[in-house]
Amino acid sequence: MNSDQNKIVIFAAGTGGHIYPGISIAKELIQNGFSVLWVGTKKGIENKIVPEAEILIEYVNFSGLRGKGLLAYIKLPFSLLRAIIQSIVLIRKYKPQIALSMGGYISFPCCIASYLLRIPIVIHEQNIIFGMANNILRHLSKKVILGFPMNLKNIKYKYLGNPSRYENINKKVKIKSEKKINILVVGGSLGAKIFNEVIPKTIYSLKETTKYEINVIHQTGKTIKTATDQYRNIDVNIDIREYIDPMINVYEWCDIIICRGGAITLTELMNLGIASIIVPFPYATDNHQMKNSRYLESHDAAIVINQKNFTHDHLASIIKSFIENPELKQSLSENILKLNKKDATKNICDEIISEIENN
Q1: What is the DSSP string of 101-170?
Q2: Could you give the domains of the chain?
Q3: pTM for the predicted model, two decimal places
Q4: Which of 35, 110, 219, 297 could serve as 304's disulfide partner, Cβ 3.0–4.6 Å?
């Protein structure tokens, strides 16, 4: 293909779970000589993140419906039509060879516009179940790339994994310590208030009942004061941070992680073979975090706690099992590493390029 043919448009907006994998793919395609246009919204975090990644971005006026009330549904036909028209104008002007949808509400009008313009559509679904938009739009697509395995027989579905910033990093072998445990707490990019309330009590309980040296790095998000107040009188090594970036140093430092069940977080754990205690966010759309997490649990690759059972006593008993049974950590680490899908970004880009050549 000559240079004026190497064009792709990417649709992703709203959450890091859609945006960060899209950025990984965009960067790989740019290195392969592609020109990339990103379509997002001015209100989403992509408005900051995508330009920082030096990727061209344009905007469409559209937003999600969940939790917006009856009026949003009444206005939907008009707002959708406006967004489709805006998308048609952008895509027709850019003239891409293919469209990549990473899911989320923005993908709906953009994929409809692409379909009307006869632009082949590739969809990437990060979670183990389809989101609402992808579940509809997959029927318009030429190819559907899966971040987690699904039991789908159609040849247009391919399980290639999720792009991740750590997918090609070699896991470092940690030196075992007989009397020390390093615990990393990450509640997602915004933190998790319940983690900041429950985990300090857990650490206090462990301090009182074990002779192990306990070290904690806790990413709190915006409710940092809650965690700071809770940890104030606990005599252990605690590093409290509102936000952590990059994550690689703390990933390599920890023995176990306590985290949510977002697709990209779990992908990074699979990349690096980290033993984990997962507390899925119970209000995630279609309960997808729990379903992602149960996949790991079904392969003896993680311990999963339903948030309604997330008490400091229960968590302390699980962490004690890591202390008393070092083989548990080793087993979880080995099993989650087996689920890692190597070279996800490269393989997804190869699939996109192949789709262009076949069209």
Answers
A1: E--STTHHHHHHHHHHTT--EEEEE-SSS--HHHHHHGGG-SEEEESS-----STTEEE-----TTTTPP
A2: 3-164+342-358 (3.40.50.2000), 180-338 (3.40.50.2000)
A3: 0.91
A4: 297
